[in-house]
């Protein structure tokens, strides 16, 4: 604990899980909302501050962090007095699918009167419905149709409490058991 009696925020940057690492980087509402606002085209400190009504010291810290990790780039747009804007980098633009997934989930589970914001695909003239699709077959993917597997970046020396391999194996075994029992069906006696 710190001198103020506050619990220090845990870090997840060394966990063998990209979701944990993203949560470590973007795990507070201000940070995600800043990336959202940057995706909407806001670039200047005052625009972010006005949009979110965020305390200036908090905004400075979050913008600095987003620049440090590479989601935003700080560019001077005025020399005297010096003024900077914050623009999305390629890494920041690659967060767009995550934002749209959050938007879709929020519309479905947290909205009562329909979507407060829609995302319109200009080339085809329609609103998008975010979904995960298989890059090979193009079909939408459901959680029950996937297996989580250890990837090429999985470290060899993972502390036992962080090791995901047993969890993945148990999930596959449970899916296999459900698949067998659902496909077995009732036995039918043959007429002989």
From TrEMBL:
<feature type="domain" description="HTH hxlR-type">
    <location>
        <begin position="17"/>
        <end position="114"/>
    </location>
</feature>
<dbReference type="Pfam" id="PF01638">
    <property type="entry name" value="HxlR"/>
</dbReference>
<dbReference type="InterPro" id="IPR002577">
    <property type="entry name" value="HTH_HxlR"/>
</dbReference>
<dbReference type="InterPro" id="IPR036388">
    <property type="entry name" value="WH-like_DNA-bd_sf"/>
</dbReference>
<keyword id="KW-0804">Transcription</keyword>
<dbReference type="InterPro" id="IPR036390">
    <property type="entry name" value="WH_DNA-bd_sf"/>
</dbReference>
<dbReference type="GO" id="GO:0003677">
    <property type="term" value="F:DNA binding"/>
</dbReference>
<keyword id="KW-0805">Transcription regulation</keyword>
<protein>
    <submittedName>
        <fullName>Transcriptional regulator, HxlR family</fullName>
    </submittedName>
</protein>
<keyword id="KW-0238">DNA-binding</keyword>
């Amino acid at each position: 604990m710190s001198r103020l009696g506050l619990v220090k925020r845990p870090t997840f940057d060394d966990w063998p899980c990209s979701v944990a690492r993203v949560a470590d980087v973007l795990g507070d509402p201000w940070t995600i909302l800043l990336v959202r606002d940057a995706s909407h085209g806001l670039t200047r400190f005052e625009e972010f501050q006005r949009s979110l009504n965020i305390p200036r010291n908090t905004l400075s810290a979050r913008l600095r962090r987003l620049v440090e990790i590479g989601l935003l780039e700080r560019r001077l747009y005025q020399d005297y007095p010096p003024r900077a804007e914050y623009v999305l980098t390629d890494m920041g633009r690659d967060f767009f699918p995550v934002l749209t997934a959050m938007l879709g989930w929020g519309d479905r589970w947290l909205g009562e009167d329909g979507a407060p914001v829609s995302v319109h695909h200009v080339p085809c003239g329609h609103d998008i419905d975010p979904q995960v699709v298989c890059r090979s077959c193009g079909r939408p993917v459901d959680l029950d149709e996937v297996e989580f597997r250890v990837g090429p970046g999985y470290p060899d020396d993972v502390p036992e409490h962080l090791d995901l391999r047993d969890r993945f194996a148990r999930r596959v075994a449970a899916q296999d058991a459900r698949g067998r029992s659902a496909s077995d069906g009732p036995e039918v006696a043959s007429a002989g």
